[in-house]
């Protein structure tokens, strides 16, 4: 049975004969369907609201979505790792509250920022322990921790807003570098760093592996517990930082913010095309999802759409977009 | 302790209990450094469990495991990996959403300055492909690969990790002749480099051909461990099953009846090209071909599981619309046993429920559990499946027993056309004979059977006719009384490009 | 326009006082929530008043959820522990039935403040009072919103382009606010160019205001229905020449009025309204006459008007 | 080929040696861990609040949780089938709005009930189409449809409450049969019917199968599309019915209710021990989860716990409960 030499060319011819098996077009279509949706939306927005593409409006759009974008970045990691984090809203609120509260009590916005990030890290560690070590379903684990974190934020702030008068507190969100507002720079940098981390490093590859097949990852010797925990810690950090940014932007930190931020972030990640099953997705997809949502919200506000029509339009557009995405994927298969 | 201890693996009194069921009790295993060590035994004998204890996938409930003289505690694959032991498992451990290349480098990526070194990995991947004689495009997603292609990737991963001990659980079960040969070659190269190899296989020929030492397990205990020279095929079988099995199976002697299935012009864009097949009642038609030659896809098309396939179908002489849904095909009396257990069984459900899934005892909407159990047990017994295990979640069954559940489930339809994809994958020699004989029995009862197997001998043993596939075409049809109905000739046809021979237009 | 069918099925007689001494009152105090400083001030005052009259008082946290509040009322009735309910409804309609039927059946007195119940949110003056209850104490009824809008109209003889930022749809304050804002349609030179509902939080109000301003560069005025939102509006408007009218009158808002950040703020009196609502029950038990509607905008705490502006802000004291 | 008889005894000996293979103890512990949690909670509640077990209080607990219980029943089916439904809150609100609105406009509460259930069925059919036919991820599909449904409820009600004065409208929720309030009877009956359907019929088995292994179910010839769609339809019906029940209880139907009902229902199902991965779980588990939540809420109300402490206590108890559950499961493995 020594014919392997025969086989190689034979198979090679076979592949050569059907190079169009994985014809690129439909794949491209499906991979980039959401970019198409985004472009279409932007076109629509420009028609309906001529000021849409003005630099000021674009700046506002990005500024308003910096926080949810940063949270969505963390959520991208969590979801690709096969998890779920419902506690980001509470951590965001805790970050906002702690940064403002500590700034008031210590007089230093930097200490406030550090305290907030520290609080976010603690939240993340707790989630990581619950999910990775105690093996609690991430949905329930983070629903439970969200409740506790939110309660702590209310307790800490005594259910009142911390209004910060120190102008330095606003520097983080209100300053610019090279003409670009700092938060937008931060958003861009975190997305680039996150994208590189996920797509181009060993750590990123391992995250895909634990999300795609937890057992396979474990069997190939990955430290699945630590890896799993790490994404929750990162997400906690990012959520608290997002809260700090928003507190700095508004000059107020209070515990009742962020109610929708978890669902919004998850929706952004998934509309971008990352699968909730884990093991698939990308940071650029979340960026596209973020821009789709940001465009929609801005359009609605600019057009003065009433709440009910906003709800209907937003739902319909999301459904159309994902239906198109799913259709183009199925066409490929 | 010297640099290379004499024993690579030493197990003493290893014991593993699963929710009260003892899978391995008091097994002693000694693997000498540098040897090829085979583990054999019936389905459920505890081979995978024992390997699991050695590789650290499982934690022992008793006894000790040493790798190169270091006591391991189990329950953590990292531990033994750090000692140089690398395992390739029986259950496929692919990450479906990652590319073939990424799967090979799972847990062992190469980096440069903190970033993935894609160029180096690509180069290494292509080298491995060459070495193992595999053609899998590096960017194809694992989920789009066939079971055997995934198995090859898994072996590539094992080879790439460059362990001092390589543990392989049924590495050849999903492979066809040709890839087996390649694998044997690779294993020999590795041994030459001093790698210790432990493997499990139900293929006694390869066990006898490759090993230095053979250990037989039965009911979780080591029956005998001895050097290759002390074993012969019959003694192996006798130790495994406690009786002798001299022949795989006998071809049916009954006459073929009316034509049952006639399909022609079966095509699926890019995969299948105009295939025709005719099967008469009582006949067994075998399909053989190399990996990726399209056998599975052909059977799926017939069974309605490839909605975009096209073709013409005649059943019992009646022209029927081409089945575009599985339920349509089932209603017509065509059923298919899929090639992958993971694909076809609901792992969390018990065997009885799996057996009855998609079917009814016919008494209203309510389940009639006792009747279900009785009938599932009867059909299961036909495939040598123990009644007592009907109520257990399929997940807890050993690979071979899962296969039996699968066969019983589909045979239970009492189909007119029985399409069977890899029926003997991962089942022991005793049960293999049972399964093949039951296929002959089904045919004798009047079913038209189409069977594929990567083990050509098995197909040749039971088939009345053989279709040889290459590149999605039937390149040859050989009857059992044809002189070409033999391993050499068939394999030669299998390697044809599909263009030189006349396709079966 | 509210889709409210006639709600006059409740018995409209107040039940007889279940006790004769205010010190025997066992009060269930239903707060809309606990998680903002307005409500914290109310609760603090409630405990103080209860101490003063020697009555027992338990606080129920409605969590900003009308059904939660309903469930709490049901449970309070079941427990039989209370003989008076002092209620700050999250939704005046959902709790209408239980307050006008079930509570009287169990001999429990009901005093309502902040939001009218039983679909009376858009009624005027005395009509915000639901017969059968002891009293209604309010400072943010439709009349107040109408006066607020009129105040804006009066202050801008040349007209103005206006943006409105409200709480969620269906919230009684939102309904009143938008109802009152219809007056701009009839006023010469006034136009509502943008209008956005939010969830009452600062970030949402910020986003809405920023986009509004961006899309309508010629906007002159933003009216914001809650100080918590106004904080976001102020930040969003930044240095642009836009007047901001606030509704809330908390410490921060008065400070902003003083420094010119806000054009005006409508005073809300959490402590006063709570005190009046509890004292009304005590008075009723004492056999004193109780006004059906206690209008907070006429409160002695205020210098004759609920609108704090740069000119008169010194006369106001924030209650939270 | 008559060797099975030979083989059977050979194997049977193997079994004979270990007749106790499925030792019951650890499994029982894990299967019923949540019942233990419930019992402990009830004991705690009785100590902290002596009136807890009084018939009136028990009646209140059940009445207050009838709606979320009915929604959780539907959710049990969805989750076992491998899906997810975030739109139940909106459907619940639509049911409440339509039943009250139609009762006012037609004068007949029965017509109102039918209209609400019809609306719920339509919502369910839409979700079913999106998930089963268009293959949209159920999370995004139902998030999108929730938005649309909610918008429709606001539009229909003109963003105002429908206050129903017709006393017949309240009969559904306020009447009793044999001394037991009708809603409690309805809750009991739906749970029993749902439990039987899931555990004892072919339909139920098929639901487990599509959730446990979609492909295997399809290869077995099940109508996976129809089956998947059917659970969404059922859930839509149940959610709208729950809305109707609550509208009848309160005498008002309005569009802004039900914001938390989806997450609450999911939490109930999962705390009961049904896996979010699909293919596993049971109706009785959801009943236990419901009672755990109901007990907690009732206890908090009775103790006048302030919201921040409630949040902390609720989160902690949920986490402890699921950690115990997860611990007892792992012990078994
Ligand atoms: N996770 C598990 N839970 C319960 N029982 C198990 C589990 N894994 C294996 N078993 C049981 O342990 C016994 C040994 O199984 P094992 O998989 O080791 O057999 P095997 O020799 O590898 O068989 P095969 O040749 O069929 O792969 C079987 O009876 C099996 O059902
Ligand atoms: N639906 C499909 N679309 C595209 N390619 C497919 C599809 N189904 C199968 N293939 C590819 O077609 C080829 C034929 O695969 P098939 O599984 O039918 O071969 P096989 O003869 O059964 O081989 P194996 O030994 O791997 O089981 C493989 O390369 C497979 O990846
Ligand atoms: Mg095995
Ligand atoms: Mg195949």
TrEMBL record, chains A, D:
InterPro entries: ABC_transp_permease (IPR001851)
Subcellular location: Cell membrane
Region annotation Disordered: where it falls in the sequence: 1-22
Topology of the protein relative to the lipid bilayer: Multi-pass membrane protein
Annotated keywords: Cell membrane, Membrane, Transmembrane, Transmembrane helix
Pfam families: BPD_transp_2
Name the UniProt record assigns to this protein: ABC transporter permease
TrEMBL record, chain B:
GO molecular-function term, one example from the UniProt record: ATP binding
One Pfam family per UniProt: ABC_tran
Domain of life: Bacteria
Entry keywords, A to Z: ATP-binding, Nucleotide-binding, Repeat, Transport
Keyword ATP-binding recorded: yes
SMART domains for this protein: AAA
Domain ABC transporter residue range list: 9-244, 255-496
Protein name: Sugar ABC transporter ATP-binding protein
Organism, scientific name: Nocardioides endophyticus
Lineage of the organism: Bacteria, Bacillati, Actinomycetota, Actinomycetes, Propionibacteriales
């Amino acid at each position: 049975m020594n014919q392997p030499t025969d086989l190689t060319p034979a198979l090679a011819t076979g592949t050569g004969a059907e190079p169009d098996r994985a014809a690129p077009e439909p794949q491209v279509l499906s991979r980039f369907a959401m970019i198409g949706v985004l472009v279409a939306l932007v076109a629509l927005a420009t028609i309906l609201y001529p000021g849409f593409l003005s630099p000021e409006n674009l700046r506002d759009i990005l500024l308003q979505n910096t926080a949810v974008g940063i949270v969505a970045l963390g959520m991208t990691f969590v979801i690709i790792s096969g998890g779920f984090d419902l506690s980001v809203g509470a951590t965001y609120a805790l970050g906002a509250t702690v940064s403002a509260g500590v700034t008031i009590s210590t007089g230093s916005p930097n200490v406030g920022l550090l305290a907030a990030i520290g609080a976010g890290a603690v939240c993340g560690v707790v989630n990581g322990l619950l999910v990775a070590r105690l093996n609690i379903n991430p949905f329930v684990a983070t629903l439970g921790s969200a409740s506790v974190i939110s309660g702590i934020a209310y307790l800490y702030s005594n259910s009142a807003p911390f209004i910060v008068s120190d102008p330095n507190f606003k520097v983080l969100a209100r300053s610019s570098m090279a003409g670009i507002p700092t938060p937008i720079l931060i958003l861009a940098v975190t997305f680039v760093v996150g994208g590189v981390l996920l797509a181009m490093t060993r750590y990123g590859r391992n995250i895909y592996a634990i999300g795609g097949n937890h057992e396979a990852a474990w069997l190939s010797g990955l430290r699945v517990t630590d890896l799993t925990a790490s994404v929750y810690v990162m997400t906690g950090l990012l959520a608290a930082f997002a809260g700090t940014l928003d507190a700095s932007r508004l000059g107020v930190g209070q515990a009742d913010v962020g109610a929708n931020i978890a669902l919004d972030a998850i929706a952004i990640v998934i509309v971008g095309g990352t699968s909730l099953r884990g093991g698939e997705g990308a940071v650029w997809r979340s960026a596209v999802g973020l821009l789709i949502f940001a465009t929609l919200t801005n359009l609605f506000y600019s057009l003065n759409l009433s709440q009910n029509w906003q709800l209907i339009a937003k739902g319909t557009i999301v459904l159309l977009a994902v239906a198109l995405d799913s259709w183009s994927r199925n066409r490929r298969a | 302790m010297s640099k290379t201890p004499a024993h690579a693996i030493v197990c003493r009194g290893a014991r593993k209990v699963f929710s009260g069921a003892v899978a391995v009790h008091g097994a002693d295993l000694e693997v000498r450094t540098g040897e090829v060590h085979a583990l054999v035994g019936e389905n459920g004998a505890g081979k995978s469990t024992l390997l699991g204890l050695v590789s650290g996938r499982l934690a022992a409930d008793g006894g000790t495991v040493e790798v190169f003289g270091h006591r391991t505690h189990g329950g953590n694959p990292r531990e033994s990996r750090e000692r140089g032991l690398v395992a390739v498992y029986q259950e496929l451990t692919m990450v479906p959403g990652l590319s073939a290349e990424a799967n090979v480098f799972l847990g062992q990526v190469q980096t440069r300055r903190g970033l993935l070194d894609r160029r180096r990995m690509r180069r290494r991947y292509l080298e491995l492909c060459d070495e193992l004689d595999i053609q899998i495009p590096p960017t194809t997603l694992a989920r789009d690969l066939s079971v055997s292609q995934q198995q090859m990737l898994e072996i590539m991963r094992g080879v790439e990790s460059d362990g001092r001990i390589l543990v392989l659980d049924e590495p050849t079960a999903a492979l066809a002749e040709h890839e087996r040969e390649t694998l044997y070659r690779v294993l020999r190269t590795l041994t030459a480099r001093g790698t210790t190899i432990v493997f499990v296989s139900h293929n006694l020929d390869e066990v006898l051909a490759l090993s230095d030492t053979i250990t037989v397990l039965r009911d979780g205990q080591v029956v005998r461990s001895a050097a290759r020279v002390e074993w012969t095929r019959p003694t192996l079988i006798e130790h495994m099953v406690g009786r002798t099995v001299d022949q795989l199976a006998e071809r049916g002697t009954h006459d073929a009846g009316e034509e049952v299935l006639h399909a022609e012009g079966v095509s699926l864009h890019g995969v299948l090209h105009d295939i025709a097949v005719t099967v008469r009642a009582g006949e067994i038609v075998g399909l053989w071909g190399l990996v990726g030659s399209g056998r599975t896809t052909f059977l799926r098309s017939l069974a309605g599981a490839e909605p975009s396939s096209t073709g013409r179908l005649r059943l019992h002489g009646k022209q029927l619309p081409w089945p575009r849904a599985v339920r349509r095909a089932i209603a017509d009396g065509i059923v298919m046993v899929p090639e992958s257990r993971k694909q076809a069984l609901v792992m969390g459900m018990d065997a009885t429920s799996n057996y009855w899934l998609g079917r009814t005892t016919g008494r209203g909407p309510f389940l009639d559990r006792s009747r279900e159990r009785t009938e599932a047990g009867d059909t299961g017994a036909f495939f040598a499946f123990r009644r007592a295990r009907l109520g257990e979640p399929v997940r807890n069954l050993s690979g071979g027993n899962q296969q039996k559940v699968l066969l019983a489930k589909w045979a239970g339809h009492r189909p007119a056309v029985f399409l069977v994809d890899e029926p003997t994958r991962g089942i022991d020699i005793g049960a293999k004979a049972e399964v093949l004989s039951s296929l002959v029995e089904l045919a004798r009862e009047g079913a038209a059977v189409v069977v594929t197997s990567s083990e050509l001998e098995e197909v040749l043993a039971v088939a009345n006719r053989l279709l040889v596939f290459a590149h999605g075409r039937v390149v040859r049809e050989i009857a059992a009384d044809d002189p070409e109905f033999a391993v050499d000739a068939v394999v030669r046809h299998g390697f044809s490009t599909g263009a030189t021979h006349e396709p079966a237009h | 326009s509210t889709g409210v069918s006639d709600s006059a099925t409740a018995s409209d007689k107040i039940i007889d006082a279940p006790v004769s001494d205010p010190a025997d009152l066992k009060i269930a105090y239903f707060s809309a929530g606990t998680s903002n400083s307005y409500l914290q001030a109310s609760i603090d005052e409630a405990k103080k008043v209860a101490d003063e009259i020697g009555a027992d008082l338990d606080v129920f946290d409605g969590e900003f959820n009308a059904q939660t509040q309903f469930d709490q009322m049901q449970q309070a009735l079941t427990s039989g522990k209370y003989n008076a309910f002092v209620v700050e409804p999250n939704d005046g309609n959902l709790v209408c039935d239980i307050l006008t039927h079930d509570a009287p059946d169990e001999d429990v007195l009901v005093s309502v403040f902040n939001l009218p119940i039983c679909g009376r949110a858009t009624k005027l003056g005395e009509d915000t009072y639901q017969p059968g209850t002891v009293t209604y104490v309010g400072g943010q009824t439709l009349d107040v919103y109408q006066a607020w809008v009129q105040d804006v109209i009066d202050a801008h003889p040349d007209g103005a382009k206006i943006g409105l930022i409200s709480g969620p749809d269906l919230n009684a304050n939102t309904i009143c606010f938008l109802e009152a804002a219809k007056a701009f349609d009839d006023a010469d030179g006034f136009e509502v160019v943008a209008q956005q509902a939010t969830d009452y939080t600062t970030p949402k109000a910020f986003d809405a205001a920023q986009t509004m301003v961006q899309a309508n560069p010629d906007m002159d005025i933003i009216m914001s229905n809650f100080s918590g939102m106004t904080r976001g509006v102020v930040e969003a408007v930044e240095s642009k020449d836009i007047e901001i009218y606030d509704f809330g009158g908390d410490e921060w808002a008065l400070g902003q009025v003083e420094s010119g950040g806000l054009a005006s703020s409508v005073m809300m009196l959490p402590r006063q309204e709570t005190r009046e609502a509890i004292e009304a029950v005590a008075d009723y038990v004492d056999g004193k006459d109780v006004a059906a509607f206690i209008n907070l905008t006429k409160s002695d705490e205020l210098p004759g008007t609920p609108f704090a502006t740069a000119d008169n802000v010194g006369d106001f004291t924030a209650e939270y």
